[in-house]
Design goal:
This protein is α/β, with parallel strands linked by helices. The chain has a single domain, classed as Alpha/Beta hydrolase fold, catalytic domain (Rossmann fold, 3-Layer(aba) Sandwich), CATH 3.40.50.1820. Helices cover 35% and strands 21% of the residues. The strands form 2 sheets. Strands 1-2-4-3-5-6-9-10 form an 8-stranded mixed sheet, with helices on both faces. Strands 7-8 form a two-stranded antiparallel ribbon. Helix 2 packs across helix 3 and helix 5 crosses helix 7. It starts with a strand and ends in a 7-residue tail after the last helix.
């Protein structure tokens, strides 16, 4: 069952969809997950929607939502700031804890890519999250960008854009806008995995926010709650080493899973069955659902 709804985050109305497994009995409180979408993406027609439906099939209540300034949520479009998204994740948790379908003490958070960085940070500073799954995430914005712009020429071009945008804001009071692919390069053949509702242009301030965001700083505070760092091998969008470094900094119980397959999108159709089986094993160990087959 999917129910479209909304909740409040810092005075903004965020658009969301709640998934409730068909096998839930009246009055039964189930473990739940909040699913966070990727960089200026959407909860709909996206990896976040695929993840949410997968978790619902495994017996979890799931809330997927559009971050502020994205999708159908309120906020100035594309003016994304990482710490605002952390606040959105925490407010989503507060909302989900109030639902009668949900066990309020067994709510995890799963994020993909940008959403994974937000998920790790949110779980690191808010002990109400029971566990965290980071899918192709990152822990250090500057180091991530260096991996995404690896040559001296590419790095000079990217940092030049950042500085030009900073000056433009200082001189005019207005944001300078750039292509999302100038910040986060994605090869043409992988762009089909983006939501059709994803934003294609961003203000430079959004890139600066990511540059200065470090989930690495708080990942060690998730322990003793479980964490899973899941990444595709040789990810050409978000460097795989980002998950390796977060795992190294995490306390136990933490697990690291590196899989081959479609770069950066581990639930692409050809890879989904194996990916789901791996995730199911982890979930059964750390936050099992009574509806799990």
């Amino acid at each position: 069952m999917e129910e479209k709804l909304s909740f409040q985050s810092d005075g903004l109305k965020l658009s969301a969809v709640l998934h409730v497994p068909a096998g839930r009995k009246p009055g039964q409180k189930l473990p739940a997950f909040i699913v966070l979408h990727g960089f200026v993406g959407s909860k709909d027609e996206s990896h976040a929607e695929i993840q949410a439906r997968m978790l619902e099939e495994m017996g979890y209540v799931v809330l997927r939502f559009d971050f502020r300034c994205c999708g159908e949520s309120e906020g100035e479009r594309a003016q994304v700031r990482c710490f605002d998204q952390v606040a959105d994740a925490k407010n989503a948790l507060t909302f989900l804890q109030s639902r009668e379908e949900v066990d309020p003490d067994r709510i995890g958070v799963l994020g993909h890519s940008f959403g994974a960085a937000v998920a790790v940070y949110a779980a690191g500073i808010d002990s109400r999250f029971a566990c965290v799954i980071s899918s192709c995430g990152w822990g250090d914005g500057e180091r991530k960008f260096r991996g995404q712009h690896p040559t001296p020429e590419a790095w000079a071009k990217f940092t030049g854009l950042l500085e030009k945008g900073r000056r433009h804001k200082q001189e005019t009071g207005e944001s300078m806008w750039i292509s999302r692919f100038d910040a986060v390069p994605i090869p043409e053949h992988l762009r089909k995995n983006l939501s059709p509702k994803a934003i294609m242009e961003i203000p430079v301030e959004t890139a600066w926010s990511m540059y200065n965001f470090r989930a690495d700083d708080v990942v060690g505070d998730i322990s003793p709650r479980p964490s899973l760092f899941f990444h595709t091998a040789d990810d050409i969008i978000t460097p795989t080493e980002q998950s390796l470094r977060m795992y190294e900094k995490a306390g136990q119980p933490a697990e690291l899973l590196i899989v081959t397959g479609t770069s950066h999108f581990p639930l692409s159709p050809q890879d989904a069955p194996r990916t789901k089986a791996i995730l199911k094993g982890w979930l059964d160990k750390f936050i099992p659902s009574p509806l799990g087959a």
